[in-house]
Design brief:
Layout (H helix, E strand, L loop, with lengths): L2 E5 L3 H13 L4 E5 L2 H10 L4 E4 L8 H9 L9 E5 L4 H10 L3 E4 L4 H11 L3
Parallel strand pairs: 1-2, 1-3, 3-4, 4-5
Helix pairs in contact: 2-3
């Protein structure tokens, strides 16, 4: 079964993403409130996909991705960003730290599911 970690400091957004994923056939979804929380959870359990915001307190998405990529189990796990950031510079920074894909908020559930399916090759 595919297990997905969603990381965002907005409870409402986490709920929306979780609902979209579960409705799209991904029932195993774990939530984290920021990068630090996500990193702790990722060290306890290996997820098949991580979807993270960029702008969060404690540890932002870029730092989270950098730290995840240092863990051998996460060397090839897809990490997608779901963020309001849309400049080419921010996307380039995401790619440089190891982001697999970039989705801009607000998101369309069908587009999110399509992107998830592509990165999971489902």
């Amino acid at each position: 079964m595919t297990n997905i970690l969603i990381v965002d400091d907005s409870n409402m957004l986490r709920d929306m993403v979780k609902f979209a994923l579960q409705e799209g056939g991904y029932p195993d979804v774990t939530e984290a409130v920021d990068g630090a929380d996500a990193l702790q959870k990722a060290k306890r359990e290996v997820f098949n996909l991580i979807i993270t915001d960029i702008n969060m307190p404690n540890m932002d998405g870029f730092e989270l991705i950098k730290e995840l990529r240092k863990i051998p189990a996460y060397a090839k796990v897809p990490v997608m960003t779901l963020t309001t950031e849309k400049t080419p510079e921010m996307k380039a920074k995401g790619k440089a730290v190891g982001a697999t894909g970039w989705i801009v908020k607000p998101f369309v559930p069908d587009q999110l599911l399509k992107a998830v399916g592509i990165v999971l090759k489902r």
